[in-house]
Specification:
0% of the residues lie in helices and 60% in strands. It is an all-beta fold.
């Protein structure tokens, strides 16, 4: 059983900053990637940022230069530093992790419950 818990969401003014954090726990053998997706009402869920165990990162074009993802995948944690927030960033942000667990030791995707980020004008 794997559980991902997000924290750090909230309400901020445009131009402000928030840091989201996520920690995975449970029967985890290894994590090969962690990251964040977001979904706003009426929109599809989209990738925001991701980081691999090797340290490679990937960002949505809309957040490049404003958001920074970091993590310690050996400790099953990831953070998203969000700066210069815009109203368009308002969404529920979901943490995900690629986790290897018994008995197959293959990597499967796990998701958190989501944390609300609201950016006011």
């Amino acid at each position: 059983q794997v559980q991902l818990v997000e924290s750090g969401g909230g309400l901020v003014q445009a131009g402000g900053s928030l840091t989201l954090s996520c920690a995975a726990s449970g029967s985890i053998f290894a994590v090969n990637a962690m990251g964040w997706h977001r979904q706003a009402p009426g929109n599809q869920r989209e990738l925001v940022a991701a980081i691999t165990r090797s340290g490679s990162t990937n960002y949505a074009d809309s957040v490049k230069g404003r958001f920074t993802i970091s993590g310690d995948l050996a400790k099953n944690t990831v953070s998203l530093q969000m700066n210069s927030l815009k109203p368009e960033d308002t969404a529920v942000y979901y943490c995900y992790a690629g986790v290897a667990t018994p008995p197959t030791w293959k990597y499967d995707n796990y998701w958190g419950q989501g944390t609300q980020v609201t950016v006011s004008s």
